[in-house]
Amino acid sequence: MERFQRELTDFIQKLYEGERKVLVCGEGRMGARVMLIGEAPGEQESLQGRPFVGKAGRNLDAFLEAAGLARSDLYVTNAVKFRPTKRSKAGRTVNRPPTQEEVRIFLPWLLREIGLVNPRYVVTLGNVPLKALLGPGHVIGEMHGRLIDWEGRGLYPLYHPASVIYNPSLKDVYSQDVARFARILQKD
Question: Could you give the CA distance from residue 56 to residue 114 in angstroms, rounded to a whole number?
């Protein structure tokens, strides 16, 4: 994995020469049974250099714990490996969704990372990683909570943990989807 991260860092430095891009690589157990894929790092992830350590990460941890899943047994990464930002009307730097081009650039790296970790299950968190792996015609609102056969692995789409922060009405759906996934793991 160290070689992968060095090669990815070199690639990003060449691609975005002159721009400051903080690379946030995945972390977790190699050979993990479950790999979680988010869309891109946020502010805290970029500052700490680790995936899912901000508000969405704390939200994710709470749902995993409630379902009896330990983050230490998982591998966690993002479809895009740096924080996409824009300027707000107030002049602050804020998160923005990754562009299709950014997702396209990182897709070969994500697929290689999946191959290196070799999980039995891939859990996509939100539309960005779902569309990266399955294509633009797939949306989380229609696919969440369903186990799909993908590349010889189980692919399980979940809403992004931040969606529950912005849309509290999704909390029950999210909890049910995480619990359903925990039951799938118990049966396997």
Answer: 22
Query: Is the pTM here over 0.85, yes or no?
Result: yes
- CA nearest neighbour of 129 among 170, 153, 97: 97
CA distances 76 to 19, 61, 159, Å, are 26, 11, 15
Q: In whole angstroms, what is the distance from residue 176 CA to residue 4 CA?
A: 35
pLDDT tens for 103-130 read 999 999 999 999 999 999 999 999 999 9
Residue type for position 73: D
Taking alpha carbons only, the member of 4, 28, 40 closest to residue 129 is 40
Q: Can you tell me whether residue 157 is helix, strand or coil?
A: strand
- CA gap 101, 81 in Å, rounded: 13
Six-digit token string for 153: 């692995």
**Which residues partner with 184 through β-bridges?**
none
Are the C-beta atoms of residues 106 and 137 closer than 8 Å to each other? no
Beta bridge partner(s), residue 14? none
**Cβ neighbours of residue 171 closer than 8 Å, sequence gap 6 or more:** 164
Q: CB–CB of 42/51 below 8 Å?
A: no
Summarised one tens digit per residue, pLDDT across range 19-56 is 778 899 999 999 999 999 999 999 999 999 999 998 88
